Amino acid sequence: MLEKLTKDFMSYIGLSGPPLNVAFNSRGKTSLRVSWKAPKSLQNVELTGYQVCFYTREDTAPVFLVFNTSAKVLSRTLDNLKPSTKYFVTVSASTKAGYGEKSLAVSKITNGEPVNPSTTSYYTLILNIPKPKDYIREVMVIVQNAKMTSTLSENIKTSDLKPYRENMNDPYITAYLKADVLPLTFVIGDGKEYNSEQEKYINQPLKLNSSYIVFLRFFESQDSYYSTEWSSGVKTLIKAPVECIINQNSEQSNDEKTRMDLIIPLVIFALCFLLSLGVIVYQRRLIQNNTRQPDHKRGNSEQNEKFGM
Questions:
Q1: CDD domains recorded for this chain (predicted)?
Q2: What is the CATH number of domain 10-109?
């Protein structure tokens, strides 16, 4: 009864009721697109345009920004917004008498900046997951081989995201985390389980010498979430093939053999030189001893003659 009286009064003074079906059609990192339908027709009311008001509750004093449109325009793109921020939007219709009743507020979170991982090993990547806003409850870590064609993260339905399967080329959920553990330095590919209440997610080790891209999906609720953009492609470390290792060992053996071929003759030469030197020294000492013996005998004879012996 009260609603009917309100409509009758607004119609009487020439104001419009609230626009219908206010909803978001698309979003980006810094933009949201909102659409609506004209309010139910009221007697003696001619629409002249619409007013779109949007704001965030994160500021101490919310700032209301307003856009005016013509009566024929039933959508508006809100630009220059903050990434990873929840915005509220209302729409009201205008007549010659002024702006009528506002629609109920609808909300949407803008998408986030990409979070780029870094290489740490043959089978893992490091990802620094930031702490989100207080209304975020959970986060998914989604991975895909960079060689595959990727869909915009915003356009991937949550229901299409699955746990890892062998030889999987589609994006897959490698971990499901609670927001209260964030911020976190997360190791993609550590082989552990990071499960939700409904599903098991194995953080599958990555393939060596392969490129991967990553995005995060933050959840306020099952129906309210936002995604970061895909990261840049990051490659795991290259492991030397067995053939290369064998070749390196073979080359090393050849080098060692070459060095031995040079060292052995030098050692033989040194031994021969020392042996020759030893022979020469021995011969010289032998000659000296032979020379001293006659002198010694002659000296003894002279002493005997002197003492009459």
A1: FN3 (cd00063)
A2: 2.60.40.10
